[in-house]
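Treating backbone geometry as a discrete language has practical consequences that deserve illustration. Part of our work consisted of pairing the sequence of a single chain with a tokenised description of its backbone. What the numbers capture is local backbone geometry rather than side-chain detail. For completeness, the protein is quoted in full, as a sequence line and a line of structure tokens:
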Amino acid sequence: MASAPAMTGMETDRYTGVAVSLHWIVAGLIVVNLFLGFFHEDFGKAATPVLMTLHKSVGFTVLALSVARLAWRLTHRPPRADAVLKRWEATLAALTQWLFYALMIALPVTGWILTSGNGRATNWFWLVKIPALAVSKATGREFGDYHVYLGWSMLALLLLHVAGALAHQLRGHRQVLGRMAPWMLR
């Protein structure tokens, strides 16, 4: 798989292996976390503490990987927009990418603030304690509302992103999806 050199001006039509790996790992974790966030109560009261510990752990993992992904993105030029994209599609794609970065950081941070409202540390996969931030219960509750709104926003953006990728695939623009999907035939 070809990889793009760091900000040298040389361009490729594919994302780097690191960018592709981070994309799919974070995407999978986001899907898992949206599921856990929206449906944890459906598994019964006894399962909720375990599922919420998993939700928080995955959230912190998404935060760490998203910061790494953003650092990679800022130091490695992505491929230019595919020629089959109309100008508005390329603009929408770029806006969507930056909104994803914002949400991938804001969602875990608002969740951390929400959880910190109870004044207790959070377990990361029952291995490491992550300290609570110094916030009041009221601030935690307020950020809980933001966390829910951001969760719905992430779901909507994810659906838009998938719909756009599938639309290009179905129109025969296989190279668009193939830039980020290593299993796609080019």
Remarks:
- The first strand starts at residue 122 and ends at 124.
- The two ends are 12 Å apart (CA to CA).
- The CA atoms of residues 40 and 46 lie 10 Å apart.
- The beta strands are 122-124, 128-130.
